[in-house]
Amino acid sequence: MKRVVKVVGKKYEELNVEKAIQLAIDYQLFSEHSELSCTEIGDGNLNYVFRITDINTDESIIIKQALPYAKVVGESWPLTLKRAKIEAEALKEHGKYVPKIVPKVLGTDTSLAITILEDLSHLTVAREGLINGENYPKLAADIGEYLAKTLFYTSDFALHPFDKKKLVVQFSNPELCKITEDLVFTDPFFDSETNNIEPELQSIVEALWANKKTKLEVAKLKRTFLTKADALLHGDLHTGSIFVSQKETKVFDPEFAFYGPIGFDIGQFIANLIMQVLTREREQRELLTLQIEQTWLAFTTTFSELWKKDSVDNYSYIEDYEVEVLREVLSDTLGFAGCEIIRRVIGLAQVKDLESIQDSEKRIKIKKQALEIGELLILNRLKFGSIHSVTNLVRGAVE
Ligand SMILES: Nc1ncnc2c1ncn2[C@@H]1O[C@H](COP(=O)(O)OP(=O)(O)O)[C@@H](O)[C@H]1O
Ligand SMILES: CSC[C@H]1O[C@H](OP(=O)(O)O)[C@H](O)[C@@H]1O
């Protein structure tokens, strides 16, 4: 029988499959006579993920462990273990508002930087499924609802100011924010060591670095990210942080959670959909482009319902206030989406959607389109009046 565990006091050590099995036994996560097997399945940039299965019953759980460094780089990049606690707490906080879209936390062990999670292996990581040409009819509506509910209910629109500020302190996440500040908002816009630029893109990238207008707009977006403590964000909402099937959607891996601008999560998700659109053959593009529109529609529709139903802000009834808030969220969303696209093309953490394209001519062409769209989103974010003008830009770029 699985139990809910919360342990503090052990000394930190890195797990391996044997130690992970031993922990599952110590925590009594399975029944006494279980025969356990374990595989490390982590494919992310930062952590270990162990899947432990009772081979007789097929019952399984996930043990995720933070390492004291960024796995993608190695021990030369130390990283706080506190991120495991932040991740578990963010899952619990967001789970209050969208329980069907957030994985269940079965336990935590702060000293080992461990989170025990329900096993979602019956689902597919959205990035992988999309790369394989799948379409997920519920993805946009579910993510729109997830965004609206988690962002609205953790904001000043829904919370007493004391409760909100308590959460701001609880979710202070400086080291993980610094990664985003560097890898999303700074390094790709300078000649930084962390960048990874294909030679055929060098001249375009140099033009990007030399464009003072773009730099000014990215500086403003970075400042917004640094200072606008709107709501408890997921903080890294790309398609690799979402499990999907035709029926279900689950958002996982919120270790970058912190109080930031509402448009950041929306922008990262939309950016990753845009990159996927660019990689698809003509007949497969439109379905996914429509998902961008549906995400925004689902987000705004639900956000407006919550605004009318549950806002505690004295000003919420003032005509046009909500419209103006959503207009600002849209322009932030588009600017952040532009930065996310650019960093995924030339920065440290690139995406399989683009990297797995074997035909180098095709890959370079798509990367150029992505850089162009990213820059246009950043520069024109205040001018796009609707999500349709954005999707039309994407449609036009791949014609
Ligand atoms: N609850 C889960 N159930 C099943 N597999 C999971 C679960 N959580 C993570 N994984 C697997 O582990 C991989 C890495 O997990 P992730 O949380 O993204 O780690 P990181 O923080 O290192 O990016 C995921 O892509 C997924 O394949
Ligand atoms: C050195 S961290 C790089 C990159 O990795 C994170 O993604 P994930 O944990 O899902 O692999 C995040 O996007 C960071 O920017």
From TrEMBL:
Which pathway does this chain act in?
Answer: Amino-acid biosynthesis; L-methionine biosynthesis via salvage pathway; S-methyl-5-thio-alpha-D-ribose 1-phosphate from S-methyl-5'-thioadenosine (hydrolase route): step 2/2
> What HAMAP family has UniProt attached to this entry?
Salvage_MtnK
**Which named protein is this?**
Methylthioribose kinase
- Which EC number(s) are documented for this chain? 2.7.1.100
The record's similarity note reads: Belongs to the methylthioribose kinase family.
Q: Which UniProt keywords apply?
A: Amino-acid biosynthesis, ATP-binding, Kinase, Methionine biosynthesis, Nucleotide-binding, Transferase
Which parts of the sequence bind substrate?
A: 236, 343
The Aminoglycoside phosphotransferase domain sits at 38-283
Q: Kindly report, in one word, the top-level EC class recorded for this enzyme.
A: transferase
Q: How does it assemble?
A: Homodimer.
Would I find Transferase among this entry's keywords?
yes
Query: To which species is this protein native?
Result: Sporosarcina siberiensis
Q: Which reaction does it catalyse?
A: 5-(methylsulfanyl)-D-ribose + ATP = 5-(methylsulfanyl)-alpha-D-ribose 1-phosphate + ADP + H(+)
**Function, please?**
Catalyzes the phosphorylation of methylthioribose into methylthioribose-1-phosphate.
**Top-level taxon of origin:** Bacteria
Is ATP-binding found in the keyword set? yes
Amino acids binding ATP: 47, 64, 118-120, 253-255
